[in-house]
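A note on notation is needed here, since sequence and fold are reported together in a single record. The reader may check this reading against the record printed directly beneath this paragraph.
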Amino acid sequence: MEAKQFPGPTQHAVVVGAGFGGIAAALRLRARGYTVEIIDRCQRLGGRAQVHVRDGFRHDAGPTVITAPFLFEELFALFGRNIADYVTLKPLDTWYRFQFADGTHFNYGGSIEDTLAEIRRIAPEDEQGYLELVEASRRIYELGFEKLAHVPFHNPRKLIALIPSMARLGLYRSVWQLVRRYLKSEKLRRAFSIQPLLVGGNPFQTTSIYNLIHYLERAHGIHFAMGGTGALVDALARLMSEQGINTRLNTTVDRICVEDKRVRGVFLDTGERIDADIVVSNTDPAFLYSSMLNDRQSKATAKLKTRFARKSMGLFVLFFGTTRAYEDVEHHTIWLGKRYKDLLNDIFNRKVLSEDFSMYLHRPTATDPTFAPDGCDSFYALVPVPNLSAEIDWSVEGHRLRERMVEALDETILPGLRDCITSDFCMTPEDFQSDYLSPDGAGFSIAPTFYQSAWFRYHNVGEGPKGLYLVGAGTHPGAGLPGVLSSAKVLDQVVPAADIQVADCRTYEVSP
């Protein structure tokens, strides 16, 4: 399609929000000739990947699992740099330990043979079924990640063209339905269907295209940044500084400046205006369209999505240290309670805070002892909970849930925890709303249901004024580090290089 010309090059880009999607967008735009300014309201870069230090214990507050390291490597390679010169990404042997309610466990990770050996130990009848599940996940991965994760979906014809392929892969099924086809063991069904929870979805309601996460782990492994996710953020911050990207922290963007149906910059909450030729939003899209643009500046599609959006669940996170070390606890443990489907129904649909729970336990000191004083451990325990649409009084329920979690851990994975826990503090969905401007305190923006994926999800090309683009968890392809980094790759196809004079950037698209 022929692009219209206008006087003057589009040269300056403002990125609103310095999560991983915003950082990746800033670097990609800089590599394509833009001068770039990135603005965030937090004290340090990283968005939700903040770092807390209490009494010598360090805690990553955001993502702790790195699955597609090549997406980070690409950002450094854009400028002829090697990521290994900035941060060490260490592969883990055991990716997750699944701890079941009956006291048994299942170690997942390593080679296919390592996983099969564990399957033979607890459910030998599922050995062949697992191999078939891996093959099904591979086919979904090749379509959903390799071919589609980095391409724009603002044209519905792209989705229509994919319908035959999606039907052949059975993507009308939920993740649970797909896993159930191949595995008989209830324990393994739970272990291999939890992936949607890593991006904010209910396995019983999330389209099975998200089963690609299983093969993504298998293809690239799971890594940990030595020094934590915060060290990875620091490495990217150093790279941005070297490339002349201007960073403004402790600064809140109040609204997008729009004139003649085109973005002209942003207004800060202080009233200051920062001019820009394009604006990339790494804020939650529901917040962007409801609070940073007025009603006349958003298209009907964005208004409908915002009005009817199904948000992801909320998160309750307990950070704590221990005055002793738990050497037999893995780096990543997923503690599954007695209930599964009914518990998820309570969280996502009934929106009630149940007495029981499942949790993810992170012990970074298993890999990096510097996270805690000598002879101690650093932990965080994350429990999926209803988001703020449930109207839970977290000033009361937060303390009660904390007590139940400590009791459960004391009786199972961390015996003696009550006597050695120290320096603990919590984050609730209310903190996600206030700290990160996340509507309803959702942990992962909108949920990854079929009707909130691909074309149905918030578009990377803004559904409003010209020159507005979106990256991050709420836009295509979705949440999680591979998702938000891929959302920034989409910009390479919809934003023209800085020396290309394009009046309506949305007409400029490169075929994948």
Summary: Residues 1-9, 501-512 have pLDDT under 50 and may be disordered. Residues 172 and 281 are 31 Å apart (CA to CA). The longest strand covers residues 314-322. The longest helix spans residues 127-147.
